[in-house]
Amino acid sequence: DGMLDGIAAMQKFVKIAVTEPEVSKVPFMLDASKFEIVMAGLKWCQGKCIVNSISLKVGEELFKEQATLLKKHGCAVVVMAFDEEGQAATEDEKVRICKRSYDILVNEVRFPPEDIIFDPNVLTIGTGMEEHANYGVDFIKATKTIKEQCPYVKISGGISNLSFGFRGVMKIRESIHSVFLQHAILESGMDVGIVNAHEMIAYSDLEEDMKLLCENLVFNKTPDATDDMLERTSYERACIDARKKGLPMPRKPRGNLPNLPRLQFDYDRVEPILAAEPPLPTSEAARNHVPNSYLNSKLTHEKIAAIRAKATLLTKPKLDYAQEKGTYPESFPHFVRGRDSLREYIASLFTSRIAIYDGAMGTMIQNYAKRNRLEEEEYRGERFVDWKCNMKGNNDQLSITQPHIISGIYKEYLEVGGSDLIGTNTFSSTTIAMADYEMEDYVYELNYEGARLAREACDEVTAKDPSKPRFVVGAIGPTNRTGSISPSVEDPAARNVTFDELVEAYFEQIVALMDGGADILMVETIFDTLNAKAALYAVGEYLDFTGLDIPVFVSGTLVDQSGRTLSGQTGEAFYASIRHSKPMCVGLNCALGAKHMTPFVEKLANCVECFLHVYSNAGLPNAMGGYDETPDDMAEQNKVFFENGWLNMVGGCCGSTPPHIKAIREMSESYKPRKLPDIGRPKMWLSGLEDLIVDDVHNHLGLPFLNVGERCNISGSIRFKKLMMAGDYGTAMDIAKKQVEDGAHVIDINVDDGMLDGI
After folding, report:
1. Is 77 helix (H, G, I), strand (E, B) or coil?
2. Distance CA 160, CA 165 (A)
3. Euclidean distance between CA atoms 615 and 654, whole angstroms
4. Of the candidates 542, 535, 551, which has an alpha carbon nearest to the alpha carbon of residue 613?
5. How far apart are CA 714 and CA 727, in angstroms?
6. DSSP E strands, 624-753
7. Angle 489-490-494 (CA atoms, 0-180°, nearest 5)?
8. How far apart are CA 435 and CA 419, in angstroms?
9. CA 253, CA 709: separation in Å to the nearest integer?
10. What pLDDT band is residue 58 in, cutting at 50, 70 and 90?
11. Which among 106, 13, 21 is positioned nearest to 569, based on CA atoms?
12. In DSSP terms, which residues pair with 423 in a beta bridge?
């Protein structure tokens, strides 16, 4: 809107919306004509949302750039049927532009086809102009052809455009929409539409004479179709005027409408096939299982070089960890860095037995402090004896000042616990978290040393038994700030960190972890999925800059028995939000003991397409903040996961120790790992606070159709526009709530106006 600051408005509306459970439980569609406004909103969405829109109107190169950026954010995208020549109006033009866009997105950008929504342009009919008369039927015919030629895509449209010539008489407009949607959905496979769900009319509820008028108009069946509808419109308007002094007549009850079948295409009938490995990232290295060279000194991208240049290390760091190809035998279970694909190795390991992760670092440091002196002086060491603030409690710092403690803990988990993989002592090693100790400048060193010590411990233990290689997992924690939650009770739009700041902090951590010898990257203890998306975006940037294939694990934290993260997402919504990053393994850790995690692990086991892990706490904390489960207790609580075949990797979190891991490992040895789910047709999987599989949706009329609520759109609602112009975001939020209550599956947010800062 020309009177609104679109960027500021989008950011503020989204930041408030994500704090409203009744709104944010559904995914968002971020809608703007300016790409920068969409991006501004996208960086505040923890869920997987839809971006509306991009098109070839901007030229092929910019189109690919925008699509690549959206792919990195993991969102679905609406692609308008525009090209460099303009808008597609006829059936042939709609098909041609959509097919060209599809080929570029899928074959060049490698955008997931199931996350593409084409909008072939719903244009206005009933204008009296002959060239407009076929707009409705052209859209319907084009929809089916596009679905046939572009497997797995969705088709959407702004339905209100169709009847714009009949504005002011809602009954007429919604009757036209009903007929249009009935045919477009059930006969041509249209899936999505921006609608006012509350006003929608079921096809079966249409009066027979109204239905005939609409059929004639939509399909241009008779020369008089527009005149006939105009006559009926005059009648309906007269009825409205006659009732103004009385109460409005109630709508005829719909009753319980059965779900109607979705139109099936050939690609919908493909039989599922067995999965040999988790879904692959789109990079050439990942798709071809190219081994990581472990020659980090050859990684010279300017952003990586800049981070290394400001490192505080006192000596020149070792960056290369490749081994001689003949170090160990070539066949599984042996592994040689630089020779073998770690992706292939993990796939073999996780499908042959339940792999073992380590346990709690903090608990082991606390246990050490019970037997040995570990006070402020020891935390400072010689290096930081004159530091300007207290350092006790900064456990990550011990990798620098007391490396023997951290190395000893690593080795205990490897030798006593029998861990196949150990996490680095870097949970808080970001510039954001280290600000508490004024140690932002030391972040590279903290991560490098944490990873280096783990690398040395793993290599030492592997050398004793090369048939059981051990691997370093670079631990990337959540930071102490959240992108989705306001720190201010008075201002729900306030944030103390931005998406870009999180990405920058995580990228520095990732560079140092890999330079220190990490094999795998783990984004863990996710209580706010937006933070995790920033971390995964940073991982994606690192992989793009280096061309490497680094397996990525992701671990969420459900904070209580509600089964939701601190930012409100269910486990399934959390997974839907991050699955675009193609993690090899996803799971849950922290907050709960294994017993309390059980129902949520089962739900994830039924939906995740990759490997699954759990590393739970040793029960719930007692009154003193400690954990009471013994190793045998914890192993018994984890047994349900093994019996049901839910896991591929298991470990421990708060309260767990090497004896706990040993007991869990011994318990797991009698059970088989989780089988990867079969590979079926791809589906669009969105999320707000809850997940939503678009291909399985039926709306309140029983149609296989996604209702996109249109009233949070400046061009679709005068009331919403006035509220946004006035800065009344609270009342604007009520409109969003009403859309969800009335049956919207997705909320369309559009603040396009020349007088408004859209971002």
Report:
1. strand
2. 10
3. 9
4. 551
5. 13
6. 649-652, 685-687, 691-693, 706-709, 746-750
7. 80
8. 32
9. 22
10. very high
11. 21
12. 473
Give the H or E element holding residue 14. helix 6-17
Radius of gyration of the chain (CA): 28
Write out the DSSP string of 649-672: EEEE-TT--HHHHHHHHHHHTTSP
Confidence of residue 638 (pLDDT cuts 50, 70, 90): very high
With beta carbons less than 8 A apart as the criterion, state whether 37 and 5 touch.
Answer: no
Report the percentage of the chain scoring pLDDT > 90: 91
**What residues contact residue 643 under an 8 Å CB cut-off, 6+ apart?**
671
Q: Is-contact 696 683, C-beta < 8 A?
A: yes
For 553-585, write each residue's pLDDT tens digit: 999 999 999 999 999 999 999 999 999 999 999
Please, what's the largest Cα pairwise distance for the chain?
93
Asked if residues 428 and 396 have their Cβ atoms less than 8 Å apart, the reply is: yes
Tokens of 589: 């850790």
Distance CA 122, CA 310 (A): 54
Cβ count within 10 A of residue 168:
10
Its pTM stands at: 0.91
Tokens of 15: 């930041």
- Cα 596 from chain centre: 25
CB-based contact 614:635 (threshold 8 Å): no
Q: What are phi and psi of 422, to 5 degrees?
A: -125, 145
Sequence-distant (6+) residues with CB within 8 A of 636 are 667
Helix ranges (DSSP H) in 570-689: 571-578, 594-605, 631-643, 658-668
What does residue 585 show for φ and ψ, rounded to 5 degrees? -145, 135
Cross-strand bridge partners of residue 192:
706
Residues 419, 661: contact at Cβ < 8 Å? yes
* CA neighbor of 557 nearest in space, from 606, 533, 513, 523: 523
Tokens, residue 674? 């989780």
Q: 571: which 2 tokens? A: 């486990």
Contacts of 259 (CB under 8 A, 6+ apart): 698, 702, 704
- φ/ψ (deg, to 5) at 197: -55, -35
Dig out the tokens for 421 from the structure. 């993989």
d(CA 200, CA 249): 16
53: cis peptide before it, omega within 30°?
Answer: yes
The length of the chain in residues reads 759
Gap between the Cα atoms of 644 and 642, Å rounded: 5
Residue 568 CB contacts under 8 Å (≥ 6 apart), including other chains: 21, 24, 25, 484, 689
- Tell me if residue 135 falls in helix, strand or coil: helix
Which of 676, 755, 680 lies closest to 722, judged by CA?
Answer: 755
- Partners of residue 78 on adjacent β-strands: 52, 117
CA neighbor of 708 nearest in space, from 669, 756, 744, 749: 744
| Segment 430-474, tens digit of pLDDT | 999 999 999 999 999 999 999 999 999 999 999 999 999 999 999
pLDDT at 246 over 80: no
Q: What is the pairing mode between strands 86-87 and 552-556?
A: unpaired
Identify any residues that bridge with 168 across adjacent strands, giving them in sequence order.
Answer: none
Contact criterion met (CB below 8 Å) for 191 and 692: no
Q: Are strands 691-693 and 685-687 parallel, antiparallel or unpaired?
A: antiparallel
